[in-house]
Amino acid sequence: MNCFKINDIYDYIEGSLSPEHQEELERHLSVCPRCRRAVEDRKLIAGAAFGLPPLAVPDDFTDRVMARIAPAKVKHPVWLIILASASSLLALTAMVMIASGRSALGVLSGASHSFWEYVKSAAVLTAKAATLLTLAGKTVRPLLEVAYKGLSVLTSFIHPGLQVLILILAMGLVVSLFFGMRKKFSVGD
Amino acid sequence: MNEEQDQVLVRRTLRGDKKAFEMIVRKYQRPLLNYVGRMVGERELALDFAQDVFVRAYASLRSFESQYKFSTWLFKIASNLVIDHWRKKKLPTFSLSAPLGQDGDCLTLDVPDDEPAVGQKFELAELRQRIETALEKLPGPLRELFVWRHVNELSYEEMAEIKGLPLGTIKNRVFQAKEMVRRLLQEMS
Known about the structure:
The complex is a heterodimer of chains A (about 190) and B (about 190).
Chain A: H1 6-13, H2 19-29, H3 33-50, H4 61-68, H5 78-99, H6 104-109, H7 115-157, H8 160-184
Helix pairs in contact in A: 5-7
Chain B: H1 3-14, H2 18-40, H3 43-59, H4 70-88, H5 124-137, H6 140-150, H7 156-163, H8 167-188
Helix pairs in contact in B: 1-2, 2-3, 2-4, 2-6, 3-4, 4-7, 5-8, 6-8, 7-8
């Protein structure tokens, strides 16, 4: 009596033996208790293994994965890139023109102006901004120095609660000054 | 696992639709965690690994070739991650393509022995619990195949594709893993 190999027994359990081979094995099983027991045992274990309990997935698992992934690189067509670049350039030009004090009508009527005119406008604007910054620096610095010295003297004999009140009032004054100055030196005046 | 649906979701993801990838994550998080969890043992580590698998898959989605099954591609990423982990931890491992029975701990698949059956000794729930314990003692490469076959219910063809090994080699190794589990169950009884 030739017993079958373990491979054949597993193939038999999984139903992957050829019909002839299966018939032959079943004939053998009817007369061999050892192989019969071997088949039954492996069937039981395989059946139990197919039903192993699944591991629990946390509710926020997907959210955690999605939070870690970077946005996909989407390939844009060339025409879209050109269009986006042209729009950006147009927007930038419009910003420079508006900042230089030109009205929308002026911008439209001045469409024939050369590129050099816009460069000149931008240069004037930059010069104005630099002057404004220098002036602000000259004005604010001595004020800050005086305020610092004054505060040093005051804090030595004023009650802390009163110090806080004075500080708030001083900050309000600085903010008002800032907005007042901005209005006075506003671009285009 | 519906392959056609996967291909559609992959194409949508590549077009920048993150919702489509979220659907992929929801679909595969459970099978992947069931596999990774049994490979690394610790739950928190398994959750991190499963997340890493999806993050890697998303990052290299453009390299996915649509003639292959998405699920096998995902399990391949997971398997590589697990193998890296075993190597870093210096856990015992061996090549599945080495001839059967070459390493002392591996079983040959000869005719059934006279040892008593173990499947009938336990109630189903206890048998499953003992199979889980036996799996922890199984060498990593065999455990991987056992889990793919019984927990993830992958076909031998899918496993062969993931491991890049001949179908016959994979089949023999799965049978060997089953025999080893059975022997461990005998030792536990």
